[in-house]
Amino acid sequence: MFRIALGDDQTQNLQAALLFECYLDRLDEADQLDGLKHLAHVYGSMHRWHKVDELAKEMLRLATIRYKLQRQSDRRESDENPPEKTLTSIFCTRRLSVQPCVMNLETTNRH
How many Å apart are CA 110 and CA 85, to the nearest integer? Predict the structure, then answer.
């Protein structure tokens, strides 16, 4: 429902994101990771870098838990509901999400 509600209106996208965040923890981990990714895109499009970083940290936390559980149980990701992105992509997204914030702050401070 959250992704369907997204459109060109940033105000409506923000409202949809705020509503979706309240229900995010009720989803399984794979869906939470996908939801966090989509929330980060919405907040990033509005240049709310502090929120993107917060969501990226949560993505990293969930991906780390998921990775450790997979390693311990020797299960393959295909045996369960995989997130849209691989765990490696999630780790990279977390690391890269901080970069726009730093670049944005550096550019702002130079002017």
Answer: 36
55: enclosing H helix or E strand = helix 49-73
Length of the chain: 111
3-state secondary structure of 38: helix
Tell me the C-alpha distance between 101 and 108, whole Å. Answer: 10
Angle at alpha carbon of residue 104, lines to 101 and 110, rounded to 5°: 140
Is 38 within 8 Å of 52 (Cβ atoms)?
A: no
Q: How far apart are CA 58 and CA 102, in angstroms?
A: 19
- The whole-angstrom separation of Cα 82 and Cα 104 is 33
pLDDT (tens digit, 0 to 9) for every residue of the chain, 111 residues total? 788 888 888 889 889 999 999 999 999 888 898 899 899 989 998 899 999 999 989 988 888 888 888 788 765 555 556 555 555 555 555 555 544 444 444 444 444
pTM over 0.70: no
